Amino acid sequence: MAEESLAYPVSHHDQWDCILSLNPQRVLENNTVCLEVTLSYQGHDISNEHFLYTYDHTKDPRIREAIREALSPPPPPPDPLTTNNSILPFKVPPLPEGSYEVTVTVTRPGGNQGDQEGLPFPPAGITRSASFNVAPRQVQAAVTLQRSGTFPTNDQALWVAIRNRTSALDFTRYQKFIDDLFCKNKEWDIDQLGRLVAYLPNIRGSHAEQHLSINGPYAYAVLKLATQVFLTLECGVVIRHRDRGGHTLFHLEDETIRLNDSSVSFHDLKHSLEQYLVPFDHHPQVLPYLDRIVQALVGLDPERRKEVLPYCYGILQHRLTCPSLLELIWSYWHEEGMLMQTMNAIAFRFQNRRSAPHDPLVELELDPLRPLNNLIWGLIQDEHNRLTVSRRVYEYDHHYGLQLIGKAVPSLASADSRSKFIEAFHNLLYRTAIFYQEDANTTVIADAFPLLNAHKEVHLLLAEGAHNQFGDLPWTARAEMLSMQWILARPEMREFLRGRYMVPYQESWMGAVDSMKKLQGWTDTTVTHFHELAVTGERILLSIRYGDWVDIENTQEQARNWARYWKPEIQRYMHGYQAVTGVDLMADITDSRDAAQRFLQPSRLLQRRLSARQAPRSLPAARVAGALPSAVPGYTESPMPRHGRLLRHGEDY
């Protein structure tokens, strides 16, 4: 509301004041503007009933006419612009855009005659002005449709935690952890490493010089131990009641986009996670899914709920309250991407063993002055302590019904295989793709109930495979593969395998794997796609494994929120799967052959693509028919595939 006052020249009446107010200040045509006059004497308001008010406008006669109409109830007063009302509403006529001024002159009939309070009023009256703005009438009608809204659910905070912890296990952070641990401070304090010296008798150092050297196979043993420490620090979720700050892996902008909530904060997500967890016997809160399991296991024996050592009868509380957010599918896709095969081929050649008459690694020579020489020596010496390909293959089959193909892969005689997992998981991804199409169409409301049912099926299959080696083998496989990635990312390895420097690899070890695949003739699919399958597949399955999807009270809002939150991971997984196997999980199934293709083992699809790539190139039809001589300028004999490459896919070396 704009208020404007003008001083009047009558000095002996300067204790009077008058204010003309217009409300609203900015109007459109045909809107109503209310004029209000307020009188005061020495700062005190005076009753306006004994005064006359004359309104006028000199810039535009249409406003004057509008005021006249507002003051002309029948019978009309002698002067249509004068009234004894201090409040006057009038309708704004059609006017151009601009500012318009209205004036009012306040007078008292008879001058000061009849003044009951003895307050001298200016004989000429008081004149005040005020302005209002007329805005142009612009009609801009924009009709937009938006996708259906969602209601937040508490399990969304669990997904944020899963994405945070899987990011914490990224190779780049692991590489930085190892460098900070061993390389930032070259001069170690021997007193602080006394236990390490006692554990590794081949460590030699001088207390005077404070230098440390590790000889023999123990360099790899220390790397292996440091990898276990890294996993212990990063793989679980702990809710701290004191905010220590430094949330380097938590990007609030990403979460606001995924959750479609610009007001979300870190403390909101922590509170939602605490609300999602359920209390367990006065212990730290646990996931609803794990609480169901424990109630079935030890519900009749409350004394067995306390934390125990592995030698006692009870439950391991740390696996209940802080489960390791690791998924074995991460190791499976990296193994299909030839990570283990690359490291084993290098170790095979490091022992001066030839793999073929024309060994592509014949030039591998690592001098003993470089650290990598000693690390690979320790890796080979520790072979009896590492997981064999047989153990990994059996566990892939037990978890997901996934298999490997290769000479080193045994003929499986599985006791318990998840043969329906591939079908259930790919069906979930297909239904999610349909949901995305419907959700993008703002004229319909996408149905999320098929997703909810598909979640329950995959969740049950994952739970069936979470037995025996579930708690330890994924952990051990992750530790071994992380250490191998670190070795492949060493500068000495890049000097030998080189690779293509212009390829933007996500992690520094990938170039070595792609170079090895080209040397050995394994596959021409970059390891980047396999790595994305590993990372995104782990996040997707963790969100299904540890979610309480079997609760009969679940609503489709949980499935709807899940699909929208994990959309980047799901679409990347489906794209990576098509790039690796050639199967589009988003395509509609038109006949039984399409279904069989979609539910086929990924290793079979990889073998089929490798076989097609290694098939002999067809010669021109004229030569095949004998119309051309055997030696045709410009044509050469088609190269034959390398012997045994197809059968060696998936093997260790």
Radius of gyration (CA) equals 40 Å
| Fraction of residues in helix | 40-55%
Q: What overall geometry do the principal axes of the alpha carbons give?
A: elongated
Number of strands: 14
Number of helices: 24
- Compute the separation of the termini in Å: 83 Å
Beta fraction of the residues?
5-15%
Uncertain segments are: 1-11, 186-211, 618-653
* Major beta sheet summary: 5 strands, antiparallel
SS content category: alpha+beta
What count of domains describes the coordinates?
2
Mean pLDDT: 79
Describe the structure.
The chain is 42% helix and 11% strand. It is an alpha+beta fold and 653 residues long. The protein folds into 2 domains: 2-134, Immunoglobulin-like (Sandwich), CATH 2.60.40.10; 156-614, no CATH class. The strands form 4 sheets. Strands 1, 2, 4, 5 and 8 form a 5-stranded antiparallel β-sheet that branches. Strand 4 and strand 5 form a beta hairpin. The chain is elongated.
Main traits of this protein?
653 residues, alpha+beta, Immunoglobulin-like, 2 domains, 5-stranded antiparallel β-sheet, 14 strands, elongated
Topology:
Layout lengths: L1 E3 L11 E8 L2 E2 L4 E10 L2 E3 L5 E5 L4 H10 L11 E2 L3 E5 L6 E10 L18 E9 L21 H13 L2 H12 L11 H6 L3 E4 L4 E4 L3 H17 L17 H8 L6 H11 L1 E3 L2 E4 L1 H11 L18 H5 L7 H8 L2 H12 L20 H11 L7 H12 L20 H20 L8 H16 L8 H16 L2 H7 L12 H11 L6 H19 L10 H10 L1 H15 L10 H7 L3 H13 L6 H4 L29
Parallel strand pairs: 3-10
Antiparallel strand pairs: 1-2, 2-4, 4-5, 4-8, 6-7, 6-9, 9-10, 11-12, 13-14
Helix pairs in contact: 2-7, 2-19, 3-5, 5-12, 5-16, 10-19, 14-15, 14-21, 15-20, 19-21
